[in-house]
Amino acid sequence: MPDTFTARHLATVDAFFGGTFDPVHYGHLKPVEALAQQVGLSSVTLLPNNVPPHRPQPEATAQQRLEMVKLAIADHPLFRVDDRELQRETPSYTIETLETLRKERGAKASLAFIIGQDSLLNLYKWHRWESLLAVCHLLVCARPGYRQQLDTPQLQAWFEEHAVSCAGRLSEKPAGFIYLADTPLVNVSATEIRKRRHAGQDCDHLLPPAVQHYIDSQGLYRE
């Protein structure tokens, strides 16, 4: 089981968490909060994307999704937001964003990208996925109901080659490790929230109140 660290251990690791955030909800925020506490991250930057290459286009506009993220993290000093991907009109490829961040922060900075267990299992489908560990570490949050093994022996061997059980090792080098976090399984999805909204059902327990109020004020996710 992963070990627990205080914030001083990984204060020098820049952590990023990308997503469509259509809308942002507790399934995004609570596991990342637990991850940060568990491994000692002092901040996490959210990266809302504009044109996701692997899923349908968002229902909310880029500006609405950015505003919802800002509202969701307003009272959480752990979180920051970076809207660079929302400025693009082309698909948002994680590797390209991370390469830009690497150039900005320099070759020696420790960078980490947070993903869910579902994304780890499908990582081989990502654009230039083989290059990810050359520019960052991967911090993986558990997801409800997902299997533990990757699809092929080759992928499993790749994972085992890079996996570490000690979070302190993430500050040893700028990139290259995969850390599996023992985070809570928060079974909430944006798809579920949109479906509930379309059906006129309550979503108050699934996302921050400020986000719910914004969704209501904008009339989002209604038929």
Automatic annotation (TrEMBL):
Listed EC numbers: 2.7.7.18
Keyword terms: ATP-binding, NAD, Nucleotide-binding, Nucleotidyltransferase, Pyridine nucleotide biosynthesis, Transferase
Catalysed reactions listed for this entry: nicotinate beta-D-ribonucleotide + ATP + H(+) = deamido-NAD(+) + diphosphate
Pfam families: CTP_transf_like (PF01467)
Pathway: Cofactor biosynthesis; NAD(+) biosynthesis; deamido-NAD(+) from nicotinate D-ribonucleotide: step 1/1
PANTHER family: NICOTINATE-NUCLEOTIDE ADENYLYLTRANSFERASE-RELATED (PTHR39321), PHOSPHOPANTETHEINE ADENYLYLTRANSFERASE (PTHR39321:SF3)
Cited NCBIfam families: cyt_tran_rel, nicotinate (nicotinamide) nucleotide adenylyltransferase, PRK00071.1-1, PRK00071.1-3
Function: Catalyzes the reversible adenylation of nicotinate mononucleotide (NaMN) to nicotinic acid adenine dinucleotide (NaAD).
Protein name: Probable nicotinate-nucleotide adenylyltransferase
Record lineage: Bacteria, Pseudomonadati, Pseudomonadota, Gammaproteobacteria, Enterobacterales
